[in-house]
Specification:
By secondary structure, this protein is mostly helical. It is built from twelve helices and no strands. α2 runs antiparallel to α3 and α2 runs parallel beside α4. The radius of gyration is 66 Å and the shape is rod-shaped.
Length: 442
């Protein structure tokens, strides 16, 4: 991951991170909030470190910087935890690849900043006046751990009891005893000089002791800074583990999404197969319905034909009835004109023969028509029975139509039986007429 190059004198700052992050692709709102929190925490950490290092040159009565570093580390850890929890809660609705990209970017920037801070802390010497010459926010001077540990203790810094050390510490005393005394010694002046040198020596010892105390404080502060760096390293490791968990969760989410898509595809194929089967069933039902309608139309046409035949039979029956009435009238006329019958016996006999022939023809016609009606009835009955067997259980309307056709057939059969009865009656009347004619002839 590319980051802007930094030097020990000008480390990576939060403003540089913000300017670099503005060139990256636009991320979602949650990731931007987490990133801004991280940058703000890092900026506060840098300011706290700068304050702690600046306090190295302040009196020891100032507030120890490790308390601020601990609170800042806790705040940074808390903000990271909150940001990661919010990120994990919304990872199912956001783009996981953008989250991973941003986490990688933040991790790299954290490592770069911490490495630069650690290198600067271990490389720069302790110069009391250098802190005021640096800009605020830049790297500041510090003393390495080895230098602080190698500092001489108080007894090593104390002046030696040798003559050379005494001469270095007490130049006035040395100048007084540099040559042989020409005059008698001034004991009062020597006593005053000795007291002054004792006072100066005590002051120097107190100053050296305060410097050693300051060195110890600096060592403690350095240990606190190292501890803070370790905490930051631990936070980076936790961030790496969290990133690994996020990647694992995202991979699991992708696997679940793939499985769901596969299940949906299978359901879609099953639905397509079911729909095709239903379409075939509907097509078969439509075909059977059209066949049933055609059969119903044929039945209706047959019923109309039977109705016309029944009307024709009714007309023939009326004609026969009229003819029978005419015959009866003729018989009455014959009975009334019995006397005249003998004269016209031949004519009457011929008329009787003609009538017998006509009656025989009529009887044959009736018999043939009866056979035709029976055959037609049988055919209709067989066709109706076959149609009923085919259409049975399919549609209630077709069954009702079949029942109506059966009722019509029953009515026609009843009409046929009635016509047969009337025909039998006509036969009996004809036989009676023949008997009367034979009696008349006898």
């Amino acid at each position: 991951m590319a980051t802007s190059p930094t030097s020990p004198s000008s480390p990576l700052r939060a403003e540089d991170l913000l300017s670099d992050s503005s060139e990256a692709p636009a991320l979602n709102q949650v990731s931007s909030e987490v990133t801004s929190q991280l940058y703000a925490s890092l900026h506060r950490s840098r300011q706290a470190e700068a304050t702690a290092r600046a306090q190295l040159y302040l009196p020891s009565a100032a507030l120890p910087p490790h308390e601020g570093l601990d609170s800042l580390a806790q705040e940074l850890s808390r903000s990271l935890s909150v940001g990661l929890e919010n990120n994990l809660k919304k990872k199912m609705r956001e783009d996981g690849s953008k989250h991973i990209f941003e986490m990688e970017s933040v991790r790299g920037q954290l490592q770069s900043m911490l490495q630069n801070s650690r290198d600067t802390a271990y490389r720069d010497p302790l110069i009391p006046g250098a802190g005021s010459e640096r800009r605020e926010g830049d790297s500041f001077d510090s003393e390495s751990t080895a230098t602080l540990l190698n500092t001489r203790p108080l007894q090593d810094l104390s002046p030696s009891s040798s003559a050379q050390a005494l001469e270095e510490l007490f130049p006035r005393y040395t100048s007084l005893r540099s040559g042989p005394p020409l005059n008698p010694p001034d004991f009062q002046g020597l006593r005053d000089a000795l007291d002054s040198e004792h006072t100066r020596r005590k002051h120097c010892e107190r100053h050296i002791q305060s410097l050693q105390t300051r060195v110890l404080e600096l060592q403690q502060q350095l240990a606190v800074a190292v501890t803070a760096d370790r905490k930051k390293d631990i936070m980076i490791e936790q961030l790496d583990k969290t990133l690994a968990r996020v990647v694992e969760g995202w991979n699991q989410h992708e696997a679940e999404r793939t499985e769901v898509l596969r299940g949906l595809q299978e359901e879609r194929q099953a639905a397509e197969l079911t729909r095709s089967k239903q379409q075939e069933t509907v097509t078969r039902l439509e075909q059977s319905l059209s066949e049933a309608l055609e059969a119903l139309n044929r039945e209706q046409e047959g019923a109309r034909i039977q109705q016309r035949e029944r009307e024709l039979l009714e007309e023939e029956r009326r004609a026969l009835t009229l003819s029978l009435e005419l015959e009866q009238q003729q018989c009455r006329a014959l009975r009334e004109e019995r006397e005249e019958a003998r004269a016209g016996q031949i004519r009457e006999h011929q008329q009787l023969e003609t009538l017998q022939v006509a009656l025989e023809e009529e009887r044959q016609a009736w018999a043939q028509q009866e056979r035709q009606l029976k055959e037609h009835y049988q055919a209709l009955q067989e066709e109706g029975q076959a149609q009923l067997e085919r259409e049975k259980g399919n549609m209630q309307k077709e069954a009702q139509a079949a029942r109506e056709a059966q009722q019509q057939l029953a009515l026609m059969q009843a009409e046929l039986r009635r016509a047969e009865g009337e025909l039998d009656t006509a036969r009996r009347e004809t036989d009676a007429l023949q008997l009367e004619m034979s009696l008349v002839q006898g």
